[in-house]
Amino acid sequence: MTLNQKLLLGSGASASLILFGGITGYLAAGGYLTDVIGKDAVMSILVLGTALGVALALGIGLMVSRSISGAIKRAVGGLADSTTQVSAASSQVASASQSLAEGASAAAAAIEETSSSLEEMSSTTKKALDNSTFMTKTGDITFALMKSSHRSLRETDACMKRIGESGAEAAKIIKTSDEIAFQINLLALNAAVEAARAGEAGAGFAVVAEEVRNLAMRSAEAARNTESIIGEMTREIKEGMALVAKTLEEFYKMGDEGKKTNALIKEIDSVMEQQAQGIEQINRAIAEIDRITQQSAANAEETASAAEELSAQAAQMESLVTGIDSIIGGGVGGVLTVRL
Amino acid sequence: MTEDKIKALDDKIRQSEGREGKYLTFVLAGEEYGIGILKVREIIGMMTITTVPQTPSYVKGVINLRGKVIPVMDLRLKFNMQAMEYTERTCIIVVEITGPARKIPMGIVVDSVSEVLNIKSSDIEETPNFGSKLETDYILGMAKTGDGVKILLDIDKVLNDEELTALERSA
């Protein structure tokens, strides 16, 4: 039974009650009238009056019910509209927060990846930093070694010079002994001349002179051999000295290059250190971003669930509106054409 | 005729026998020469030579040999060879030249002195005839030693009489 019908019935009943009262009164009056105008006329007036009363009651009931249900119907219609909008909005919010949550979790995953890449990079940088530090140390050691070998080279040079001087000294001595041999040779020849002048008497002396001369020749020969050996030695020493000089020159160049390399290595080391620090900072920033992202993901999750709740509430409200609508009557069912 | 021949042969034999004996050999421009040892007074190393003006170019000057002034000539220059810087091997052989009047001591500069050699007459050959106009009087002969040839000099004839007379005067 719809509200309309109930209203109609109510107003009909009240009208009937009024009518009944009227009739009762009327009948009382009728009893008086019957006495006046006859029973038939009273009867017809009674029927007519009854019919008129019923029609009047019905008309008033209809009017009352119409006016009440119209107002309610309008309110319910507005409520239904709002419910529809709330429902739509809440579903939009739900989907938006859902996608926000998804985005946040995707961002969180990306950050996770970035973080692990950074971790790797950080360890690589640390390794490189270790290597460059080691290289700096090695460079220092190499430099020290170069210094010491440079000293050795200089000593070698001085030693070669001393050997050369000794060689020259020996050459002088050999020259002297060669001169002595030449003088002995001359003496022996003179002795031979004297022996020849002495004729037969000098024959023995001539043999001695010849022997002395042979000795002188051998001595000269030995001096010549020694001289050639010393000459060779001197030449080789000169070559050695030239080599040492060249090596020294190259050594100086190497030293310069080594200094440059060392400076570069030190620079690389400091750059690496800075880089490591930078990566550390990035790491910290990424961790912060990660934390914030996770928080916003959680927030989005909460928003989504709230929107869900809101949606459910909207649905309930809609069913209530439907209930009211059905109480008012199917005639106004048209307000809930949009079902959520 | 036969007698002449015999005499000539005899002379030759006597000559060659006279040439046999000891020679002092020395080097001059890479060639070996020999002087009869009895002509040699002594052999000395190079010493300071005092140049004497207005002497032929081959006369280098005089030396003071233990208080005796002796003329010195460069044998390279005398033999028209190229002059050479004196080295520590350069020697002066003091010889006695038989001059027209007396024996003249004379130093001759040679590249180097070699040795005293005993040369047999069988190893001595006559000086080959290089052409009639070429004077080879100052060569005693050619001595064969090993596979080489030594030129034996007659030091008396290296200088001609005029030169010797001049030397005699100056000495």
The SSE string of chain B, one letter per element, is: HEEEEEHEEEEEEHH
Instruction: Pick out the low-confidence regions of chain A.
Output: 331-340
Number of beta-strand segments of chain B: 11
| Total count of strands of chain A | 0
Provide structural commentary.
- The complex is a heterodimer of chains A (340) and B (171).
- Chain A has 340 residues and is mainly α.
- Chain A has three helices and no strands.
- In chain A, helix 1 (3-37) runs antiparallel to helix 2 and helix 2 (39-197) runs antiparallel to helix 3.
- Chain A starts with a helix and ends in a 12-residue tail after the last helix.
- Chain B is α+β, with helices and mostly antiparallel strands.
- Chain B contains four helices and eleven strands, in the order H-E-E-E-E-E-H-E-E-E-E-E-E-H-H.
- Chain B has helices at residues 2-19, 75-78, 155-158, 161-170, and strands spanning 21-28, 31-36, 40-45, 59-65, 68-74, 91-98, 103-110, 112-119, 124-125, 139-145, 148-153.
- In chain B, the strands form two sheets. Chain B has a six-stranded mixed beta sheet. A five-stranded mixed beta sheet of chain B has the order 3-6-7-5-4.
- The radius of gyration of chain B is 17 Å and the shape is globular.
- The model of chain B has no long low-confidence stretch (mean pLDDT 85).
- The A-B interface holds A 179, 182-183, 185-186, 189-190, 192-193, 196-197, 206, 209-210, 213 and B 22, 24, 37-38, 40-45, 88-89, 91, 113, 115-116.
